[in-house]
Amino acid sequence: MSRWLVTGAGGMLGQDLLAVLKDTASSVTALARTDLDITDPAAVRAAVTDHDVVVNAAAWTDVDGAETAEAAATAVNGVGVGHLADACASAGARLLHVSTDYVFAGDGTSPYAEDAPTAPVNAYGRSKLVGERAVLTLAPDVGYVVRTAWLYGAGGRNFVTTMLRLAAERDTLDVVDDQRGQPTWSRALAQQLVALGGAALAGSAPAGVYHGTASGETTWYGLAREVFARRGLDPDRIRPTTSAAYVRPAPRPAYSVLGHARWAAAGLPPLPDWRTSLATFLST
Fold first, then answer.
1. Which fold has domain 3-157+182-216+256-272?
2. CB 95 within 8 A of CB 88
3. Where in the sequence numbering do the catalytic residues fall?
4. What's the maximum distance between 2 C-alpha atoms anywhere in the chain?
5. Structure pTM?
6. Is 265 left (phi over 0), alpha (psi -120 to 50) or beta?
7. Staple partner for 177: which of 31, 84, 240, 266, CB 3.0–4.6 Å?
C-alpha cells in the first residue's frame, strides 16, 4: 500500500485530492496549513518520513498581496518548497509540486511547452519559479512540477462560483476578454495528480515538468458565457471588457495557454477539454 502525504490539505485542490485518494487503497496523511508550516525544515523532514508520495498543494495564493510582500510569498512558494524537495530526495519519496502558468511572460501566441523559457511578470510568479527550480535542482530524480491555471472547484473561492453568485445580484456583468487561458477543474487536476503519482511509483513517469491544465482555451469572458449557458442563464448578460478596465496591483499574463505534450512520456492522457469538465462540475 502506498503512503501519501498531502500538504495544503485544507485548500480547494487539497480537499479534492483527499476525495480522490479516499477512493484508492492508499494510506493518506492530510496536513493543512495549521498542521504543517513548510517553511520549517525540521517539521517538513519529520512530516515526509515514511511516505512514498508527497503532493504539495500548500502555497501563498494571494497574487496581488505578493506584490508588496514578495519575501513572504517566496518563503512559502520558494524556500518552503525547497525544504520539501530536500526532504523527499533524502527519503526517496516522490514529490508532486503544484505550480502555475504565471511563471511565463504571457506574451506567447501558441501553447507554452513544458521546457519553454520562463519570465514571470509579477511577484507571485517569481516566487513560484523559485519553488520550481528548487524541486528540479534538489530532487531531480523524484521531483515533479505540475503547472496549473485558472482553477475552480467546490472547495474555495473562484471565478466560476463568483459568476454564479453575481448572476443572482446583477443584470449584466463586464468580464475581461483579452486574457486567454485554460479553466481547470480542481477535481480533474486532483485525479491527474493521483494518476501521475501512481505512474511515478511504478517507474513509468519521468521526473520533471508537466502541465496540469484543461485542454482547449478561452477567455474569462468566454468562460463566463459558458457558465451562464450551462446554467440556463442568458449568456448575453455577459459583456466583454479589457484588462485596462480592471487595473490590479499584479499584472496578469495575457496568454496563459499551456501545452501538454509531456503526458505521453508518463503514459497518461492530458486533462479533458475545459467545457467537458465545467459541465461535469456544474452538474454536481
1. Rossmann fold (3.40.50)
2. yes
3. 124
4. 56
5. 0.98
6. alpha
7. 240
